[in-house]
Amino acid sequence: MTLQAAPTNGATSNFCGGPSLLGATAGPRKTRLDMKITNSLKSLKGRHRDNRVIRRRGRTYVINKTNRRFKARQG
Length: 75
Fold this sequence. Notes:
Elements: E1 36-38, H1 42-45, E2 52-56, E3 59-63, E4 72-74
């Protein structure tokens, strides 16, 4: 009994890095984390103990270097 490799025409599977059939119709993937935009940052500052309020270029940001999902911007 011998094992035969599956045909590799590039459109069969996304498992080995080849393009998939759904890959051409899927939308663009997000490469960066989204930032919450709110009117008040006081409540967002208390969401994590490492959050810091910073002013940069006239805007106020909440940043967190340990857990980047807590990013926020005011305005």
